[in-house]
Amino acid sequence: MIDEMIVRKVSKLAALALTEEESRSLQKDLSRILEFVSALEKVNTDDVLPLVTPMDLEMVVCNDTIDWDEKPESIFANAPAHKDHLFLVPKVVE
Predict the structure, then answer these.
(1) Nearest CA to 72 among 60, 84, 56?
(2) What CA–CA distance (Å, rounded) separates 1 from 72?
(3) Are strands 86-87 and 82-83 parallel, antiparallel or unpaired?
C-alpha cells in the first residue's frame, strides 16, 4: 500500500505540486498499479521466452553502397564552403 509520505516524496522528485485531493487520488492509483504488478508476479512464466515485440518482424537489410543521383558539383553548388567533396562548417568546439 502506498502511503501519503511516499506520494509526497515521488511528487517532490517529479517536481509536481499536488493538492490534497490529487495526492489522495495518486495514492489510490499507485496502490492499484502495485496490486496489478503483484498479481503479474504470481503468473508462471517458466516456459515463456522473452520477447522484444509480440509481432513477427523480419530485419530488412540494404546494400551499403554510395549512389550519386546527382553530380557532386551540383550538390555542393549551394554550400557556403566546401572542399574535396566535403562540407566545411565553422568550428563549434574549442
Answers:
(1) 84
(2) 66
(3) antiparallel
pTM, to two decimals: 0.48
pLDDT computed for residue 25 by the predictor: 94
Give me the pLDDT at residue 93, please.
85
CA–CA distance, 73 with 69 (Å, rounded to integer): 12
Helices 4-13, 20-41: axis angle to 10 degrees equals: 100
- CA torsion sign for 18, 22, 27, 31 is negative
What is 4-41's CATH topology? Answer: Histone, subunit A (1.10.20)
Using CA atoms, how far apart are residues 55 and 67, in angstroms rounded to an integer? 33
| CA 63 – CA 80 distance, rounded (Å) | 32
pLDDT-based confidence at residue 31 (cuts at 50, 70, 90): very high
